[in-house]
Amino acid sequence: MDSKIIPLQNMDEFKSSILVEERVAILIFTAEWCQPSLNLVTQMKKELDQQRKRLNQQTGVINIFVVDHEKEGSYQIVKQFAPTTLPYVYLFEKGKYIAQFGGLDVFAMNKLIKKALESSRAL
To answer: Locate the Thioredoxin domain: which residues (predicted)?
Structure first.
């Protein structure tokens, strides 16, 4: 089973998904007008799924949750995390924040994916 890209519209959805997630999850802040953000979401999913396949899927599925920085309803999530740039990525394990990076940084993305996969294997 491949990772899913799941849009989050408001704080209730955030709380009922990432904070109660019993596994590893990725949260990405984007905006419709920010093409690098949109590209990162697609690139991260593709890389995550490829790496899982290389590991013979010995890790759990890691879903990617996306918050559009400017959509109505996302204000509380944006306020809580205060991303300083777009895209901005957070990694969670069992509802707890464990890593982050900002911008379109392929090295940081690959490092975060590696950490996500390692954390997922340990669960």
So the answer is: 10-104
- Name the helix (H) or strand (E) containing 65: strand 63-68
Q: Contact 24/85 with Cβ under 8 angstroms?
A: no
Give the DSSP H or E segment for 90. strand 88-93
What tokens were used for 99?
A: 């890593």
Compute the distance between CA of residue 57 and CA of residue 103 in angstroms, rounded to an integer: 28
123 Cβ contact partners less than 8 Å away, ≥ 6 residues apart: 22, 23, 24, 60, 93, 94
H-state helical runs in 4-56: 11-17, 35-54
d(CA 81, CA 68): 13
For position 56, what pLDDT does the model report?
A: 80
pTM of the model: 0.94
What is the bridge-based pairing of β-strands 5-7 and 63-68? parallel
Task: Write down the mean pLDDT value for the chain.
Answer: 92
